[in-house]
Specification:
Length: about 180
């Protein structure tokens, strides 16, 4: 009557169906985890050819260019707010600010790199030596990490902050900074 003899044992049939369902759902969970990992590893890049530097940041970041007479300012953040306000960072938020002071076009840096950073040390970022350390804390009290490079007529300061005091996201972004494309 049965083409497969062990189907007659209903306990074995139920166990076989349960095992098959588990295998299918485990495969789906593994694929979902791989998709989440792939999404987390996707990055965008900010490249400035004029000043020969670049950095990468998470795919959820949005880039904004702000200009005034004192410097060029590029901001990368993963949240929306009014452009002229600084709100407190929430869990998962990050903000990266790139300040470019080019004295050849009239920009005036407020201070030298070694005056802007605390707990700083020398770091090689591509072809250039820079300082890496902490910048002045943000108004909301979050720690700001930074890299700064300067030459006779140019200073570039990259700061990043997030709610986590260890700054895992912004430090990964700062790790990606390279000068001398």
């Amino acid at each position: 009557m049965y083409a497969i003899p062990w189907i007659r044992d209903s306990r074995w049939a139920r166990w076989s169906i349960a095992a098959l369902c588990c295998l299918i759902s485990a495969g789906s969970a593994a694929n979902a985890q791989l998709d989440a990992t792939a999404q987390a590893s996707k990055r965008q890049a900010y490249t400035n050819d004029r000043y020969a530097f670049r950095l990468s940041y998470p795919a959820d970041g949005q880039q904004h260019t702000l200009r005034d007479g004192r410097h060029q300012h590029v901001q990368i953040k993963n949240f929306e707010d009014a452009a002229d306000t600084e709100r407190a960072l929430e869990s998962g938020d990050y903000v990266v600010d790139i300040f470019i002071y080019d004295q050849r076009v009239g920009h005036k840096p407020g201070a030298r790199c070694n005056e802007l950073l605390s707990e700083s040390s020398s770091a090689k970022l591509g072809r250039v030596r820079a300082l890496r350390g902490k910048a002045e804390a943000r108004a909301d009290g979050s720690t700001a990490f930074a890299v700064c490079v300067e030459s006779h007529r140019l200073e570039i300061l990259v700061t990043g902050a997030e709610q986590d005091p260890l700054g895992p996201v912004v430090n990964r972004i700062l790790d990606s900074v390279r000068f001398g494309n």
